Amino acid sequence: MKKFGFLLLLFVFMWAVPGYGHAASSGTQIYLDDQQLNVPSNAKAQVIGGSTMVPLRVISENLGYDVTWKQQARTITIEKDSTSIRMNIGSKTATVNGSDISLDASPLLRSNYALVPLRFIGEQMGLDVKWDSSSKSVKLYTRSSGSGNGEFTPPKSGNNSSSTGSVTAPANNASTGVTPVQEISFSQNRLTITTASTVKPKAFTMTAPDRVVVDLPATAFADNFGNQQKLDNNLNGSLDIQNEADVSGIRYALFQKEPSTVRVVIDLKHAMNYSTYNDGSNHVIVDLASKDSINTTPDATLPDGSTPDDTQTSPVNSSGKKVVVIDAGHGAKDSGAVGASRKNYEKAFNLAMALKVESILKQNPNLEVILTRSDDTFLELKERVKVAENVHANVFVSIHANSSGSSASNGTETYYQRSASKALANVMHKYFAPATGLTDRGIRYGNFHVIRETTMSAVLLEVGYLSNAKEEATLFDEDFQNRVAQGIADGITEYLGVK
Predict the structure, then answer these.
(1) Given Cys at both, which of 67, 155, 242, 415 links 460, Cβ 3.0 to 4.6 Å?
(2) Which residue has the higher pLDDT, 121 or 395?
(3) What is the DSSP string of 162-184?
(4) Which CDD domains does the entry link to (predicted)?
(5) Is the CB of residue 420 less than 8 Å from the CB of residue 309?
């Protein structure tokens, strides 16, 4: 009944508020979960005979429905999972899973596009509908993804109001059951959301354009979130994303107030796989991977329930030496993170560290050391993996500096992806983290390409945060770099037994 009342309100509102009907017939934009749909110019939303009509195929296919059109019978069939909807052009009766449903208006054809009543779409596809007066657009939200509750408040006067006011955030404390979101950051195809306590995320993908959507039930932004990261009066914000091969943007918002839900959207440049999990320390992690990658989860188990062996054999090359590949992340056109001062680039730090580690390890007669790059050169991730595979490396160590949307983020981390690399991560972190003297953020699972696609033991080291002004200065200190390089070298030699 609530849904019916809401849609009735929408219908009345369209004609009670001057200009709404006209707006819908003159280029109204359609948004699905805050992403504008690509609507052909000859398939715009229209108000016909008192009903708002929207292009069926554009909306249904973006929701994952299969649409079939039978020309001779003039029948449209929409199917997804156990739902089957059939409509006939010119008929006010639709069939939903075998039951007849009356429509406010008959579906019709306009330039080979079927237009159907917005009310019917909202009811049968589980959508909430909102009218945005500032942009003169219809906004559709999928309830299954944690969207709105169907309540709709029309503007006080007309449809040209540009005043949006501000949103009051729900109280976030233990008594309300709302968990504060403290920080959102993105680096190396990993989204990290820090919360005050464990949160179980709901994630899904959407297309046109490609994106990964992460909803955090029973959450709200921490009271001081806006002091550290972008957050406007309407509780919307975004991260500064630059030089990312796969991601064009990261945005976040208080998606709804009841129940309070923070939503984070990763805008992709192309379709990707992803994995979402909690790392056990109040972090929600979303790792992106290419569509052709094998995506594993941390601490995978074998079919018999056992855990993969953490040990790694250590063959030697033809000269009797063990082979170490040091990977200086980023390079050339890919600057990586940019320092808080805007003067220092991650690519330069990574290379300086790699060269120092190489210099130390080359003094060991039992090791052959190979760099993926020894100057300001750009390599694709797959090329870095190929270097290690071609030389049959025993270990692969990728060196990076971190970055965050919050200038307060700090500390050092060691990442592994495959269980066979966990022993290396443990040894590396034992030497590497204390050598930095920075906050120890621990050993973590990370679904990074270079440590996922390599077949030898592999780790990725995040030495510190360039986005933190104090740590930026530390990272580019010569004595600091020498000390950390020695720690990295000590970890490698102990793991390989050539100390």
Answers:
(1) 415
(2) 395
(3) -----PPPPP-STTTTPEEEEEE
(4) MurNAc-LAA
(5) yes
